[in-house]
């Protein structure tokens, strides 16, 4: 595979479309066990990302992802802005100096993103956060020799659904203790859209 600047722009456009279309749903998920702003945070953030990167020309994917990170960090409040911002910044740093983003480079970048999110948010696997989608995706990438995008999409969806039965240990939902069980984590839903978008772009562009 080869993730180009153009494919990266398409990835963010798709993510933005999904977030705008599911803004209410993300809000409802966050209303159940949080403060109800995840839909607003994500829709504002990814709209700003698309506004920025669609009018800028980039030499490398790394440069483009840096702008994605900076935009999310500056335009999105709450826990999710800095966490997604960190993820994209770490990916950008990991890809710096690479003219071709092949499968191996992408896996290393996602590994760095996960490490950065853990360092920032101090959450572990099973704590009912967005990491409960990111970590299974990273594990899938690391287990397989080649990336199967249908598996990526399926794993992201299943992992998001598994957060329903988890007890929240991190984030606002943790205040609810046992009452957090029975609801999908909002951040894991937005992360599902992110990996679903990447899978769709990868299949369409045959990258
Ligand atoms: P806030 O929680 O500040 O209102 P959002 O509603 O935008 O911010 O984002 C909430 C999401 O952020 C949660 O659903 C969860 O997935 C994620 N999250 C919260 N805290 C953490 C953390 N410490 N580590 C990883 N993800 C977290
Ligand atoms: Mg919230």
What characteristic shape results from the CA principal axes? globular
Give the ordered list of helices and strands.
HHHHHHHHH
The helix-and-strand class reads mainly alpha
End-to-end gap: 4 Å
Taken as a percent bin, the fraction of beta residues is: under 5%
Q: Percent of residues in helical segments?
A: 55-70%
Question: Main beta sheet: strand number and arrangement?
Answer: none
How would you sum up this structure in a few lines?
The chain is mainly alpha-helical. It has a single domain, classed as Serine Threonine Protein Phosphatase 5, Tetratricopeptide repeat.
Task: Characterise this structure.
This protein has 207 residues and is mainly alpha-helical. It has one domain (5-205): Serine Threonine Protein Phosphatase 5, Tetratricopeptide repeat (Alpha Horseshoe). Helices cover 68% and strands 0% of the residues. It contains nine helices and no strands. The protein is globular, with a radius of gyration of 16 Å. The model has no long low-confidence stretch (mean pLDDT 96). The chain binds adenosine-5'-diphosphate and magnesium ion. The site of magnesium ion (MG) has 6 residues, from loops.
Entry keywords:
single chain, 207 residues, binds magnesium ion, binds adenosine-5'-diphosphate, Serine Threonine Protein Phosphatase 5, Tetratricopeptide repeat, 0% strand
List the helices and strands and how they pair.
Elements: H1 5-21, H2 23-33, H3 38-53, H4 61-75, H5 80-95, H6 103-121, H7 131-143, H8 149-162, H9 186-205
Helix pairs in contact: 1-3, 1-9, 2-3, 2-9, 3-4, 4-5, 5-6, 6-7, 7-8, 7-9, 8-9
This protein binds adenosine-5'-diphosphate and magnesium ion (MG).
């Amino acid at each position: 595979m080869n993730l180009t600047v153009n494919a990266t722009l398409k990835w963010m456009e798709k993510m933005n479309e999904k977030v705008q279309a599911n803004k209410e749903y993300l809000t409802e998920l966050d209303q159940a066990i949080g403060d109800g702003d995840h839909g607003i945070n994500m829709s504002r953030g990814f709209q700003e990302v698309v506004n920025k990167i669609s009018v800028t020309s980039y030499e490398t994917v790394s440069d483009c992802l840096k702008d994605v990170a900076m935009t999310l960090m500056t335009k999105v409040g709450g826990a999710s802005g800095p966490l997604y911002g960190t993820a994209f910044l770490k990916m950008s740093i990991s890809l710096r100096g690479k003219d071709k983003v092949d499968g191996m480079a992408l896996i290393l970048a996602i590994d760095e993103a996960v490490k950065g999110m853990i360092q920032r948010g101090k959450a572990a696997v099973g704590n009912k956060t967005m990491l409960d989608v990111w970590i299974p995706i990273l594990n899938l990438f690391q287990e397989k020799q080649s990336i199967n995008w249908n598996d990526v999409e399926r794993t992201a969806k299943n992992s998001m659904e598994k957060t329903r039965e988890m007890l929240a240990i991190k984030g606002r939902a943790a205040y609810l203790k046992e009452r957090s069980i029975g609801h999908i984590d909002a951040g894991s839903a937005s992360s599902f859209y992110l990996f679903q978008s990447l899978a769709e772009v990868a299949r369409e562009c045959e990258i």
